[in-house]
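Hi Q.,

Before the meeting this afternoon, I wanted you to have the pyridoxal-5'-phosphate prediction in hand. No need to reply - just skim if you have a minute. The sequence and ligand are here:
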Amino acid sequence: MPEYIQESDFIMVEEGFVAKDLMEQIINDVSQTDDRDAFFVADLGDVVRKHLRFLKALPRVKPFYAVKCNSSRGVVQILAEVGAGFDCASKTEIEMVQGIGVQPERIIYANPCKQISQIKFAAKHGVTMMTFDNEVELSKVSRNHPKARMVLRIATDDSKSSARLSVKFGAPLKACRHLLEMAKDLNVDVIGVSFHVGSGCSDPKAFAQSIADARLVFEMASEFGHKMHLLDIGGGFPGTEDSKIRFEEIAAVINPALDLYFPEGSAVEIIAEPGRYYVASAFALAVNIIAKKEVLLEQSGSEDEDHCSNKTIMYYVNDGVYGSFNCIFFDHAHPKPILHKKPFPDQPVYSSSLWGPTCDGLDRIAEHIQLPEQYVGDWLLFDNMGAYTVAASSTFNGFQQSQIHYAMPRAAWEAVHLLHQGLPQTEESETLCTPMSCGWEISDTMCFAPVFAQTGMI
Ligand SMILES: *Cc1c(COP(=O)(O)O)cnc(C)c1O
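Predicted structure with the ligand bound:
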């Protein structure tokens, strides 16, 4: 069995020590110097915990992690190690995942509109599962990838999601019949249906509706002689505890919909493409204040007003919207700083704004926030910075991307090994552990119930 991640890839944190303590330690170390670059601490234990939670809440669904959400090496390695599959959208993402040793059967090329050279790349590297939602894609694939196993992406009602995707992708139901017919004529193998309810979905009914729609498409497909056996329920799951809806509440709607429309025994393999869910809460970012400006506000005239309140303070920090905070623009995020230096009781607060290091006036992280006075060299911390942050970060203006320090709690590392080895077969688990048709190395997720019990991780 290949090993995708080793102890040298992360910092092991021992019992009683958490990723936050590692952040504190790094801050202490670098604060002895002038070299106070912004940095991330990524808690890989949190990613492992999310995985166990996924398997528990959606026992019939195999997760294929959406690489675009955060393609940092440690994340991809740990997810490969625990047995996840991968949703890749480009040649580079496929190369990255295969570069750490993941077999092509564990990859879905889930981009309905692909460049021809990249379709050829997938063909050459054994990646056969791919999505489509239009005629032109079918003819491109029929000419360039004869072994492709296509998945028809259908549109969803994504009106309750923070980032809508069906404006760009997904065939409406009324177009499906024609696409399935055309696939038959072109001799293209269509193996199933996929959808995405939009990222940051707050309405689980969107999943139930799309699962019902997928069933209709399965029926249509059989009319044309396609033997569909894959349902891909996409991403959209929340990644932090302060989300409008909990992951388990969404799962509680998905499971009965699956049992109704794709009952166990119907020989349909079910996968999902969670992105945000796996990584959002695992990453915390520490930024350092590099400059500061006080701006006096217009005197309001009132004499007895607290003298502190007539100024606002602008802080300049060493990561911004061209870097990790691109989530403000691309992911509608509103990051809030946590003070590293605890304020003393009754310390006055000032209206403050936070700015990134580049020379662009757009590069603003937050405004009108009330903070006790901070100084150059102080640290500000941001939680929940794992989803759509590092992924789209640039080096605009010559500012480097913030470094990532990976932390792994010992208990999580032990759980990883249990997951990786699989568990001794008991009579009960034997019946539950059918090898996965997509060729995974680990046996069915049902087998891992004892991992939950043994590690106490969830
Ligand atoms: C972005 C994307 C995902 C991941 O979405 P999340 O909301 O982060 O879970 C999954 N599948 C596809 C096709 C995507 O484009």
